[in-house]
What we know:
With 377 residues, the protein is α/β, with parallel strands linked by helices.
Amino acid sequence: xxxxxxxxxxxxxxxxxxxxxxxxxxxxxxxxxxxxxxxxxxxxxxxxxxxxxxxxxxxxxxxxxxxxxxxxxxxxxxxxxxxxxxxxxxxxxxxxxxxxxxxxxxxxxxxxxxxxxxxxxxxxxxxxxxxxxxxxxxxxxxxxxxxxxxxxxxxxxxxxxxxxxxxxxxxxxxxxxxxxxxxxxxxxxxxxxxxxxxxxxxxxxxxxxxxxxxxxxxxxxxxxxxxxxxxxxxxxxxxxxxxxxxxxxxxxxxxxxxxxxxxxxxxxxxxxxxxxxxxxxxxxxxxxxxxxxxxxxxxxxxxxxxxxxxxxxxxxxxxxxxxxxxxxxxxxxxxxxxxxxxxxxxxxxxxxxxxxxxxxxxxxxxxxxxxxxxxxx
Length: 377
């Protein structure tokens, strides 16, 4: 396996050589080192987005923000209920950040209406013209004005759907965003990611996802909807018995899953999908970007490569990094990365990424922008 070690800095830039604030992961207790606060941050249209902030108890220095925005819940909720680990994976909390988790508009405890892969609005000429980009911008403005102990720098990251929000955030980047890491980001839901691979509909994944995530949220909630009961472990038999695609609504969804209805109504690459293609909207990226992708990712193999290429094509003079490895969806943070099914790699590539690429780079000082980087593990 080739290793190209001239890599870009990704989330590195915002850290600036902070010392560790605890010992080993085994000994690390988030509550002992962080205070948790919960806020409802107002957006330009008046909607308030639920945001959990974890600030280091050590007030002797300032810290960068490290933020993720998600449709999957920032829980656990309550100022005494802490996430663990903080950040992308174990070890980040010891590096010293102000961690920010936000329920995106219309999800869980955030106000407003949720829109799947909400179209980007290029000309935001009024307070009602909001998108995920403006929500990120407004959130950062509020954090800078209201959270003490920061150094004015923001990093943003996310895997899969949160990776999409990360890529969305770097369009016309807020000046405080110094680094972003979209990991397995959704890029285009018709051409190559998740529900369509080269236009072919991925039935099982779409049905399974929207039977839970697609359930309407009539009011603020801290709970996920119950998982759909397939009443069998044989997916092939379930869908064979279901019959043609219209029977999904007839038998199960009853027309109540909004984006499933959209999937059924837009079977070709029409304007609906073109509006939701985030790749074509990327422009004016001012932050260092480290995109991470799995070569065996069955869900989002398309977006990461295309987002990296789009940034590279624009010659924006930033550090633009692509990290590739033999991983399933999110495998670089969720697994040892030493096998795929029964195939053994005999190298723990996930651990290598976390320990030798990601965490060590977080203590490097910013370097001048110097073009694209590739790390192939």
